[in-house]
Amino acid sequence: MNTLEILRVTKDCDDWDKLICFAENCSWEAAGVHLAEMMKKDLFIDWESVFCAKQNGQIIGFCTFLKTDYYPENRYSPWISSMFVDEDFRGNRISRQLIECAAGYAKEVGFTRVYIPSGITGLYEKYGFQKIDVLINYGGDTDNIFMRNC
C-alpha cells in the first residue's frame, strides 16, 4: 500500500538532512540547490518553513513557505514556493497536498491568504488559486502570481 505523508520539516526533525540531500539531487537544480543552502544555513526565520512529501518513507517532493520570494518587488506574503515533485510521482496531486498542508499552516500562524509564483498557467487554478498579478523576478523573467484564501 502506498502511504503518502506531508510533513513540516524542522531542523530537529529526522528528515532535515534527508531533505537537504533530496533537494541537492533533484532535477530542478535551481530550486533544489537554493533550498539545500537555506536549510544548511538555517535561514528560515519566524514562521517560515519547509514541507516535504514522503511516500512509503521516501522523500518525493517539497515546497517552501516564506516571507519573501525571488522578486525585487515583494508586495505579497506569505509565499508557497519552490514547489517540486519528483517526475516519477507526478500526476498524483501531490503538489495539491503540499499546498493544502502549507495553507493550513499559514492559517495556523495567522494568515488569511497565500501566494504562489509560477510561469505555468492551468495548474494552480485547479487548487483554488486565481492569477492576480505578474512580477519580474531577479533573473529578469516574468512570473504569474496566484493567490487563494487559506
From TrEMBL:
SUPFAM superfamilies: Acyl-CoA N-acyltransferases (Nat). CDD domains: NAT_SF (cd04301). Residues 4-150 form the N-acetyltransferase domain. Keywords: Transferase. It comes from the Bacteria. GO terms for molecular function: acyltransferase activity, transferring groups other than amino-acyl groups. Coiled coil: none annotated. The keyword Kinase does not apply. This is N-acetyltransferase. It comes from Eisenbergiella massiliensis. The lineage of its organism: Bacteria, Bacillati, Bacillota, Clostridia, Lachnospirales.
